[in-house]
Specification:
elongated; alpha+beta
Amino acid sequence: MKINFDKNNGLVPVVIQDDRTLQVLMLGYMNEEAFEKTQNEKIVTFFSRSKNRLWTKGEESGNFLTVKGIVVDCDNDTILIKAKPKNIVCHTGSFSCFGEKNSKGFVYELEEKISQRINDRVKDSYTYSLFQKGINKVAQKVGEEAVEVVIEAKDNNDDLFKNEAADLLYHYLILLKAKNFTLQDIEKVLMVRDK
């Protein structure tokens, strides 16, 4: 990855994008040292023009940006970093420096909620309870819901079909979590096939 730090007095603009939602979170600048530190530590570090020093995003607030991917533009003078934000990004208290949190849609928000309930071990949660029963039980539940979708598809009750389809999707998201995958992982497979 060759970056041209010779332009703009050794600084290049860096766009930070949420790895899951693809929402643009902020813009900063890096010099060569900040870029190397970011690559090595996998935490975004900028060169602060106002402080005239390296500045790791979150060094005071704890709201770090964990690097998930780095891409350089076609002119080798702008960086795009896909990152996982620990919390809010903007110093104003907003999720992003460009406004409030956006998502790729409700299904992604649901996936996040399912993951949170499992990670936080929410005891009275159906999601966590099913997850605790293990992969075999989760997979069995997905199979049951898939059969129910097929049965309802053959009938003419649209409401029942939609509800069974929703149940299948919900349990599928739990299965993805149990297998340590995300919807984005599945999207990537579909994108590769879409040629």
